[in-house]
């Protein structure tokens, strides 16, 4: 997406204003290094070619052993699923985000965005400008993570079909040829290098013993892996860029250092990565385990990253330091508590559909969450807050056949508060409704200083009924597409909370940058009996928005109050519903989903209506994944709260 020059100038000014003084010096040093590297590229490291089939060195972790293959093969449908996915990939059929299926050539152009036809420049990474292009770099970066090659390599190990191994070798050879060290869009962002190293570790393990792992391919892959780790050391994402990207870079150093002991500085880089990872986790994880980016999906992505990294560490026979094990367990407990009993999660903050490693065919978000929680329980030796008995393919690959043979206990969390992360979960279970779960967001805005993946969503509420998400966050929509949808997704109006005089709680200043962020505050919580939470924020100062959420036997009661001025301003209350039928009956809206039914009755409002699929506003849409969205009902209630009363929404839930 091309951004107008004036918008770019404003973004650069806002970005510079958000940077601490030390970052200016860091960026200056980075620019000098990049200029030097452009004029005098580092000589290619000479790596001895491994033997055919790339036999595992004694110090390398055994990520894929014969017992693991046998245990995975015994899982119902796994081999057939791997074969179907691999057949589609051999035919070039691949789908990512909401762009629809494209045909990937047998020898892809790794600089070409097939969704738009835009080809990115092949020059030095520091000269590749993706913010002003007509292409979607996210699509190419996702392809460059080589997760589809992991699937092909996994299918070869499970089926022995040489077509799959040959396809991996052909694409790897093309990538190494087209994307030499430091050149092109695939070297533009350090996170992508870190994730690619993780994929390569599993690809090499799955293909060990295959004829396609020739000495020449092994040598070239090792040389590129060395260059990846050298780049990550030389160009770290620090200061305002130190978010999940930095965690991915460090995880790449840890996994690369363990998986490729043939490299001369492998052990040193492993230790550098592990020390940095533990330090960054301390900075990016609240004491209660909530990820500081305040985005549930990025919490999931970081958890996935830590699960894959920790599994490699354990398989290598290395101790897991407390600085990794502690946040891993805490983050798993948060994710398990936020999830409904069906495994669905509230869509708070940004979501880019990313995973760190994918070792199963067609796994959805629910399957992945359950797998992560099982895996963490085994890796840290302690059950997580939520556990679903059973096995899944990725869990067996990561934990091994022996660990997966031990049954795990079923666990279901209750209500909980995460005070540092600002998330409160109210939950009850009964025979009439099943599980009713409500999540209130009231805490830190995001990860300072740019708050890249946060939304203006303080005091928003998400509700699931009997495992079906009913009251939802509108979602993420796009990153590099139409800026109008990006702005809407992050606005207060795209969340189930109150707006004042048409204002947002905070002001965006670019696609991944905020100014005037506002924190929420949890004032009181009761988790026993009639669970309740009271919270506030000052994003509309001098007006204060206070919200009380109470869960009783009949459902939920939400009370909204505006204080701080003699004449309260006009307000607009929005409740975003998942796709389904919504009917207005006076002051009540009745929504019917696939399994659940919700009645919302609003008192204290002057006007109540439902909007579905209004693209001109925009309003009345829900995005369930990056680059995809669909019409979805939004309840809009206009009101002018006074000191004498509050706006009250009673939410009565039941099965359809």
DSSP summary, beta strand count: 25
State the low-pLDDT regions, or none: none
Radius of gyration: 25 Å
Named CATH topology of the domain at 416-655: Beta-galactosidase, Chain A, domain 5
Structural class, from helix and strand content?
Answer: alpha+beta
CATH architecture of the domain at 416-655: Distorted Sandwich
In the CATH scheme, the class of the domain at 416-655 would be Mainly Beta
The protein's oligomeric status is single chain
Give the percentage of residues in beta strands.
15-25%
Q: Give the helix level as a range of percent.
A: 25-40%
Describe the global form: globular
Report the average pLDDT across residues. Answer: 93
How would a textbook summarize the main sheet?
8 strands, antiparallel
């Amino acid at each position: 997406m091309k951004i107008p020059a004036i918008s770019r100038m404003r973004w650069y000014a806002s970005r510079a204003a958000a940077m601490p003084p030390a970052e200016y010096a860091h960026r200056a040093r980075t620019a000098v290094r990049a200029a030097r590297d452009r004029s005098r590229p580092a000589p290619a490291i000479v790596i001895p070619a491994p033997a055919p089939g790339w036999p595992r060195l004694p110090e390398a972790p055994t990520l894929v052993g014969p017992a693991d293959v046998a245990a995975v093969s015994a899982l119902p449908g796994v081999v057939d699923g791997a074969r179907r996915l691999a057949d589609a990939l051999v035919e070039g059929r691949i789908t990512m985000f909401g762009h629809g299926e494209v045909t990937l050539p047998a020898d892809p152009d790794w600089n070409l965005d097939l969704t738009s036809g835009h080809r990115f420049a092949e020059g030095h990474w520091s000269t590749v400008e993706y913010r002003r292009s007509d292409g979607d770099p996210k699509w190419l970066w996702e392809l460059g993570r080589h997760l589809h090659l992991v699937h092909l390599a996994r299918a070869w190990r499970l089926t022995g079909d040489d077509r799959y191994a040959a396809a991996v070798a052909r694409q790897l050879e093309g990538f190494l040829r087209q994307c030499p060290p430091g050149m092109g869009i695939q070297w533009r962002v350090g996170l992508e290098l870190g994730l690619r190293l993780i994929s390569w570790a599993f690809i090499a393990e799955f293909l060990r013993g295959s004829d396609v792992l020739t000495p020449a391919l092994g040598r070239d892959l090792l040389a590129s892996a060395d260059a990846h780790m050298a780049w990550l050391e030389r160009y770290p994402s620090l200061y305002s860029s130190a978010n999940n990207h930095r965690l991915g870079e460090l995880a790449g150093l840890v996994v690369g250092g363990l998986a490729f002991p043939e490299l001369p500085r492998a052990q040193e880089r492993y230790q550098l990565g592990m020390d940095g990872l533990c330090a960054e986790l301390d900075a990016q994880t609240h004491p209660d385990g909530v990820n500081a980016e305040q985005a549930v999906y990025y919490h999931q992505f970081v958890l996935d990253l830590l699960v894959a990294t920790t599994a490699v560490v354990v398989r290598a026979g290395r101790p897991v330091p407390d600085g990794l094990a502690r946040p891993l367990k805490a983050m798993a407990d948060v994710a398990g508590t936020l999830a409904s009993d069906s495994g669905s999660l509230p869509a708070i903050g940004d979501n880019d559909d990313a995973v760190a490693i994918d070792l199963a065919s067609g796994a959805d978000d629910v399957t992945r969450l359950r797998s992560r929680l099982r895996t963490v329980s085994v890796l840290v030796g302690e059950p997580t807050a939520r556990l679903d008995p059973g096995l899944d393919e990725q869990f067996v690959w990561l934990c091994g056949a022996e660990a997966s043979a031990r049954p795990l206990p079923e666990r279901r969390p209750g209500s909980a508060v995460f005070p540092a992360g600002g998330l409160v979960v109210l939950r009850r279970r009964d025979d009439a409704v099943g599980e009713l779960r409500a999540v209130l967001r009231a805490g830190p805005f995001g990860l300072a200083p740019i708050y890249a993946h946060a939304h203006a969503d303080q005091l928003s509420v998400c509700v699931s009924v009997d495992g079906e998400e009913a009251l939802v966050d509108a979602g993420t929509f796009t990153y590099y597409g139409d800026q109008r949808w990006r702005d809407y997704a992050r606005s207060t109006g795209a969340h189930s909370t109150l707006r004042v005089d048409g204002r947002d709680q905070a002001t965006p200043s670019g696609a991944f940058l905020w100014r005037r962020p506002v924190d929420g505050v949890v004032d009181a919580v009761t988790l026993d009996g009639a669970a309740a939470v009271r919270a506030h924020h000052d994003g509309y100062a001098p007006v204060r928005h206070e919200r009380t959420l109470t869960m009783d036997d009949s459902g939920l009661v939400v009370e909204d109050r505006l204080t701080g001025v003699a004449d309260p301003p006009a307000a607009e209350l929005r409740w975003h519903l998942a796709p389904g039928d919504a009917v207005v009956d006076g002051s009540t809206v009745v929504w019917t989903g696939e399994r659940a039914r919700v009645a919302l009755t609003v008192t204290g409002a002057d006007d109540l209506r439902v909007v579905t699929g209004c693209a001109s506003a925009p309003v009345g849409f829900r995005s369930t994944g990056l680059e995809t969205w669909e019409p979805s009902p939004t309840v809009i209630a206009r009101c002018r709260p006074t000191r004498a009363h509050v706006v009250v929404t009673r939410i009565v839930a039941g099965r359809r």
